[in-house]
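Hey, can you fold this one?
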Amino acid sequence: MNPCKALLPAVVAALLVPATSLAAPPAQAATPLTTGSVRLDIASGRVEGDVCVSNLPDASKGSFVLNAGLNVARVTDGDGKPVGFDGWYDPGVDGEARIYTLAEPAATLCVQYVGAFPVYARHDAPTDFKGLMAFNGDSARFTEQSAWLPQAFDSKTRVRSSESRYDLQVHCGGCRFLYLNGSPAIEGAQGRFRSDNPRPVLLFGGSGPITCTAQVTILNETLPTAKVDALSSTVQKIADVHSRYIGVPLADRPTFLRMVTLNQIERDREGSEWGFATWPTIAMSGSIGNVADSLLAGGEKAERRVQYIAHEMGHYYFGTLNRPQGPYFWVLLESSAEFLSIKALREISGDAAADRYIARLQSAIDKTDKPLPAFDAIDDNSDLGELYRYGYGPLLLLSLEKQVGEAKMQAFMRELLAAPSPKNWAELQGIAMKTGIDAKAWEHWRASCVAGGRQRCQ
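Sure. Predicted structure:
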């Protein structure tokens, strides 16, 4: 049973903007398709997979990665022919995953595998992070980072194909509901999930409740009506702002996922929270109710929650409709989402809230003594760390808006969404010129705010 499916048309209707304002999404490269079946059991931590990945990138037809706790039984091609592979002895490792190299490239890769993982029913594990295949006694959580499905791997660039279209049958012993990122949650221990849009493939199976409104889905936690309404209202406001600014309706309903972490005892003792976003999933440790409490309380607590949710919702545009590539990957993915979140914060919480947030970003930049990579000299070797992605990048976009005006900046952001990722500064400038930004204004911004990695505009 799918308790959320009937609400989907209402979501689209509620978020539609006039057709004349729509921007065409960029043409995207073909992405892998993952098909097959996966079985897991909450009580034992056992996982079995019989999965095929097709439409592989040319550079990734010779190798794949799979979580290091999973054992490969056999590999075949799309016709069932056995394919030889290395990876048993002295294996290569990519983070959480073991690297397997095929004896010959395969256009379709089919892998049968099995494994078992510790079950931390007391929530007393030494650690927890996104790369673990996590069993906590009453739920199972596998993210795209954990490589619970075979992922094509480019051995030269060491990049995994972590996004995929999918058609998967999932069976989970002990689950009351199942959820696969990008598909509506279903009640029951088994179900088929399909997505024609590439998604980072996250799986969650649990025993808690499912709450659906026209704006949000809340998984694995029961909230009183006032808190559900607070989340729904905030999401709707953000969706309205983003849709008007970008000119494209936000067609995904965010899913707020409560997860009890493997080391929840330690986190509760320290009073710490942990969360991550794998759009359209926003996962949070402890309680989603804490977020709603902040929204209801108002003040700076509410402002921070609005900004955070708006950032994650910005990834529908930069990360889903437009999947950034190349040297500007982090700026397009994270700085653009952060810029959109500041626009939403200003409209929803007011100028003072937005100005306070911008001041905090600038303060963090002012305190750093590490040189920042110059925006006009970014290449594939540039190290754009967290401060750059979430602080410096959005400040640069805001400084460009001051230089060219809000209308032209809006046109620039829409064109960034519609265009393939720029490969260099000249291509980025070409996008700006296409939107009517004056070449002299662009050069003045570059010279006064960008050149040399300036921490402030001069």
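Residues 329-453 form a domain with the Neutral Protease; domain 2 fold (CATH 1.10.390.10). Let me know if you want another pass with a different chain boundary.
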